[in-house]
Design a protein that fits this description.
6 helices
Length: about 180
């Protein structure tokens, strides 16, 4: 029990909306930087720097998402019957928004691919296989992480928790009730 409280308190400072938004931006900016560095490494013949940058960017993305997962798991992972109405609606709205964002991200590459099949020489730029596989992994990760990140982005700041050991607030003097005099 004490270990659970320590773990919960370790991530409590990241529960505010501002920290969650920083983590969302850090995770996706880190992965986009990873894809950009991967693309540049195929243009540059001496891309030894990428082997140093790759684990650092992967660590940034994984660390940000791990903390986001720990902070939002109370709403994101509990079953529907264990959520109150506000939490259930917030999770449903997060999934709805995530699917809309995913559709906006997936439609342009699919449309480009459908058009480029007819005109391959003029429209398709040579892209290395490793870049394409990493972009596919990004899309899979986007599908898996987007509902959690939308939930982390939109949830309000948590209410402060009360300590169980603290006494409830009791007035110092008992309230006096006066009966009306005839």
């Amino acid at each position: 029990m004490i270990a659970m409280q320590r773990r919960r308190s370790a991530f409590a400072r990241f529960a505010s909306r501002a920290w969650r938004r920083r983590l969302v931006v850090g995770a996706y900016a880190g992965y986009l930087a990873y894809l950009a560095a991967l693309a540049v490494s195929h243009v540059d013949a001496t891309h030894a720097w990428f082997h140093v940058l790759r684990p650092a960017l992967f660590g940034l993305v994984a660390g940000c998402y791990f903390v986001l997962h720990r902070v939002t798991r109370e709403t994101a992972l509990r079953p529907d019957w264990a959520l109150d109405e506000r939490e259930n609606r917030a999770r449903a709205d997060a999934y709805r928004t995530a699917y809309r964002i995913l559709a906006a991200v997936l439609v342009p590459p699919i449309a480009y691919t459908l058009v480029a099949v007819d005109y391959p020489a003029r429209l398709l730029a040579p892209v290395p296989r490793e870049v394409l596989s990493e972009a596919f992994i990004f899309l899979v990760l986007l599908m898996l992480t987007l509902p959690t990140t939308v939930l982390a982005w939109t949830e309000p700041d948590p209410l402060p928790e009360l300590d169980d050991e603290r006494e409830p607030a009791v007035p110092a003097e008992p309230l006096a009730f006066h009966s009306p005099t005839p």
